[in-house]
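comment on this one:
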Amino acid sequence: MHKAEPLRVADRVTAEALVAGVLGNMASLEAVLAEEADHVRAGRLREGIAASEPKAALAAAYMQGLEVAKANAVALKRFHPEGVERLRAAHRQFTAAVEANQTVLDSARTVSESLIKSLAEEIGRAQLPATYGRQAQAPSPYGRGVRSGPLVLSRNL
């Protein structure tokens, strides 16, 4: 299998096509990120996760387009300078959208970690017998102490 020749921008038409392709991938990826964030904000994690495959494909296409644009930066500036400015402006907007998406995903991860920790503490507390006097820990059927009992979670969202 041979490696494909990298795209070389040699005229205005090729430069315009490259810019349009990168802008199109960027817009599609931004839409997928916004949809994912909306689903996660609403608590519809399954729907949010469903966008991971198209998101990965669009991100790969976007990164490949950026690499081609970087490799042809001089030709792009020469043949299509307004396209370069449009790419810069769109990239700034896209960066803000990615940061917003990451904030939503980080918040969801923090909340889920907090819920798991609270659940584990509650289960551990429920295993302590209620007695008069000093609290004593019940022996574990697993032989490892009260706090090390199993915590079973469903991986289905």
